[in-house]
DNA sequence: CTGAAAGCGCTTACAG
DNA sequence: CTGAAAGCGCTTACAG
């Protein structure tokens, strides 16, 4: 417990030089001969010296850490691979630059802002990721005058001038609808995430537009909280309605899986009676039968891009919006042409 | 960006007192009159002052942060709610004490040790959680002489003297086997996690013992990497074997879900032909049909206990092993009496 | 109860 | 190229 960790002073003593020389040597600054530098580095290595991050933060003014606050319930979060994959991508970039990641889960947006303010006030982080951007996101405004460097994970329209790291969900929606329409579907419904999320709104708008372009009736949209339960309820309601949809598009994986159960309950066969599409392919979408047709994207890559942008921003660079590659639709076993019209009841 | 954050010196100037008085006032130390204290606190509030964590860490010697290094692939991690739920429990405790959580994902155990060493050397953390304890865990030894406070998440036998925060998986295994035996099952197989994990070994041993006690043949155990794919392969192999088991017990949720698909593939009905049990009930186990009989435990509570223990350890208290409450077996629709013997092929 | 001083471990100017 | 000094923002003794 009481193991004393070595400091620059210890190295200086051992090397018979001043602390300053040690600092120069270890930071590859001019000011010491190469021989001294090498010997100092050797001693540092031997002693197992590491820079005290607190002291560095105090002088350099950098915490060498970035923060991520998450406001979804742990249960939802745990089931969707999105977050862990995103974080793993973030960390590949942070690790290279020896940046640390601070994580906190909170219950609401007020707390989210509060945690960011505290982190920044305490100089614990140099910047933050704003996840799950909302259509009218209070955080953007609340953090503006603090000077906290932040990147928004979401579409630029709602980022309020913050660099937006986003993937064009609209394009993916068009791809899905074109595919379903080509199969012959005319009645599509979507079981979406929370309406407040900006990317939900983007998908909503794109869906309406895509249906128009495809010349099919506008799709029904039901918003949920992303849980399997809510997804099941929504799917059930849609499938027992008079003119039931022949294709259901879900905003995450767990809701799509829940829909398989609902279809079974109702004696409907997938994909013969109803086609199902999930958003974000995951291990989950591939262990069920039929495997789910899904949108797939490089989520770790998304995280890496966001981290790169944030570090650049912290470094004082001008960072613009970055659009990630499109998510691609991958047809699996859960999509097929619709049953002959009118749909059998 | 360049918004200057207020320091104690700013407050002292405004209040017309010394920096020391400010420190005393803000930290509720004796040394200032109540009137002065109140006025200083007011000014601090007005200015939006927050203690600079780097300066505090430098003087106090405490980083006010703890670390968690995770060594599972992001994809697996994302699907199992365990981690996010565990972390959410950890954070409820940390938040109360204004401790932060540092998170890092790594590829192997060497890196895991290295990250801990670095964090500790840099004084970024005051302690760490050791997750996924192995039967012969190199980390315990590697970290011992560093003095890094750590709690082991796993059984005491392998914690090497570190405080072990554990839930008695053995007891849950007994409960499952007693239940299955009572239903009439005699051929049980278990699709387990990696053999190297200590909690896997505990379950392995308990399973053998429980079968003996129940007077049924020893259960077959197949070790996997926790992925749905591996689970499906293992389940398939077991179910096409000559004397196939009538009950399958899985070490996580995703593998159990995969087994439903495999059964369907093979034309076997669950639970009529085969019973299925999952470990750790999750949203996932409840959205599939039949719902999976599963072991359920308070995972956030587990995380909270671990965090409490770690903070106590950091505080210099004597911390012993803490056993969490048992996980309980909850029968749902995936378990039933076995089909008449001999099993139909 | 109040003030001036020293120090945590490092970095950044500034003289020799 | 090398040394002594000052300072980051705070806390902890130590005198008045």
From TrEMBL, chains A, B:
Keywords: DNA-binding, Transcription, Transcription regulation. It comes from the Bacteria. It holds the Pfam family LacI. CDD domains: HTH_LacI, PBP1_LacI_sugar_binding-like. The keyword Transcription applies. The keyword Transcription applies. Signal peptide: none annotated. InterPro entries: HTH_LacI, LacI/GalR-like_sensor, Lambda_DNA-bd_dom_sf, Peripla_BP_I. Residues 6-60 form the HTH lacI-type domain. Gene3D superfamilies: 3.40.50.2300, lambda repressor-like DNA-binding domains (1.10.260.40). This is LacI family transcriptional regulator.
